[in-house]
Design brief:
337 residues; alpha+beta; four-stranded mixed sheet; 9 helices; 7% strand; globular
Length: 337
Amino acid sequence: MGLLVKGKWHDQWYDTEKTGGEFIREDAQFRHWVTRDGSAGPSGESGFKAEAGRYHLYVSYACPWAHRTLIFRALLGLEDVISVSVVHPHMLENGWEFRADKTFSTEGPEPLYGFDCMHQVYTKAQPDYSGRVTVPVLWDKQRETIVNNESAEIIRMLSSGFWDLAKSPRDFYPEALRSKIDAINEKVYHNINNGVYRSGFATRQDKYEEAFQSLFAALDDVEALLGQQKFLAGDTLTEADWRLFTTLVRFDAVYVGHFKCNRNRIADFPNLSNYLRQLYQVPGVKETVHMDHIKHHYYYSHDTINPTRIVPVGPELGLDAPHDRGDITHTSATPGQ
């Protein structure tokens, strides 16, 4: 995971020495919003109107943050509205790359400009950009710039801004549940979504153990909650569930071993494992899960953690096994934001 400094690429890992051995994630910098009429969203500039064929998603199948956007694109039926490019799972000295590889069904170079690397997309948008080069990225083909590179905001604008273009419009951020969803997202992000990274990328024992304890305390809480209700915010499936899902689906295959999050597997939690199978089996979701990309990215790319780059063959996850949490009914009331 390199970075750009004033438009120049540097193959530079996170400097945890400056933070006492703790991994600290940087905030996304592009924060514009696509809206139904092109008006300004909660942040950024106006002028990004939802139009079929205008926008392009850059994603990694391996990345849990990018995975969120693919799930929403599939659930909302936006495949014909927003095109997608998938980077190669091996993130090495050039960062995310567009590389043809039949093993992983990836293509290269990038289809809009012929780029070989994701950092070229960033400097196309802002030649003097400084910061990490991450996915997902929502790109505006018309204005030739990055709209947004914050996954939490992209999934909301897919539901709200693209409401009129979606084959299956659904509100995953209903107004009546927003305060509850926000509170859940805050806890899940810090302790679980980012908690696995804080455990895996820590370079001091105390920082690792601190993140580890917070992670499993939060998982214990969610396990108890799912024993009392169907979803994180109650009886309604919301964005909070999908934000958690992309971490859960990677947990046993990657985070248990590679990131040393090994107190328990998700398979050891009766409610969480049942809930994971329930979400995985929602029509359209399993097609967004590419375990070959997931395992190869983490085990092969992070040579500071796994210097041999040996990628494990297992485990068998059994995500297609039956669950007993019932059917999911989606509501399509009004677009959220």
